[in-house]
């Protein structure tokens, strides 16, 4: 079992930056693939970025490449999402997610592929 707590959201002007954090409980954090998703009201939850258990494999959705950086600190049981050059269209509730790593290089990108979720943190980017 893994419990996730998302923090770091807020209100920022376009072009600004925020860093989201996701703290995980449990002693096997390093065994999990971690990801960030985002969701706006009335729409499906969209994939943003994922990182492998050791940070060696990372994948981003095209719309955030070059602006967002996902990272993890296994000693602190925490995954981060550094968001720079924010745009109004980045406004959403951001969720971290975890799934036990079962081998291979594929990083899951669908919500249904993840087993554990944070409670979400609101990010609002004003124009």
3D structure, described in words:
The protein is mainly β and 127 residues long. It has no helices and 11 strands. Strands 2, 4, 5, 6, 9, 10 and 11 form a 7-stranded mixed β-sheet that branches. A hairpin with a 4-residue loop joins strand 7 (68-73) and strand 8 (78-83). The protein is globular, with a radius of gyration of 14 Å. The termini are far apart. The mean pLDDT is 96.
Shape, per Cα inertia axes? globular
Radius of gyration: 14 Å
Percent strand = over 45%
Number of strands: 11
Question: Helix coverage percent of residues?
Answer: under 10%
**Count the helices. How many?**
0
Spell out the helices and strands N to C.
Answer: EEEEEEEEEEE
- pLDDT below 50 for ≥5 consecutive residues: which ranges? none
End-to-end distance, in Å?
Answer: 40 Å
Q: Largest sheet, if any?
A: 7 strands, mixed
Structural class: mainly beta
The oligomerization state is single chain
Mean pLDDT comes to 96
């Amino acid at each position: 079992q893994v419990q996730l707590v998302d923090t770091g959201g807020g209100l920022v002007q376009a072009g600004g930056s925020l860093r989201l954090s996701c703290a995980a409980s449990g002693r096997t954090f390093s065994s999990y693939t971690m990801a960030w998703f985002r969701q706006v009201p009335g729409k499906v939850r969209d994939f943003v970025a994922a990182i492998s258990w050791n940070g060696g494999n990372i994948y981003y959705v095209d719309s955030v490449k070059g602006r967002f950086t996902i990272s993890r600190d296994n000693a602190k049981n925490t995954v981060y999402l550094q968001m720079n050059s924010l745009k109004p269209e980045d406004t959403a509730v951001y969720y971290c997610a975890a799934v036990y790593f079962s081998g291979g290089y594929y990083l899951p990108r669908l919500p249904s592929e993840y087993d554990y979720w944070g409670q979400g943190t609101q990010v609002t980017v004003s124009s």
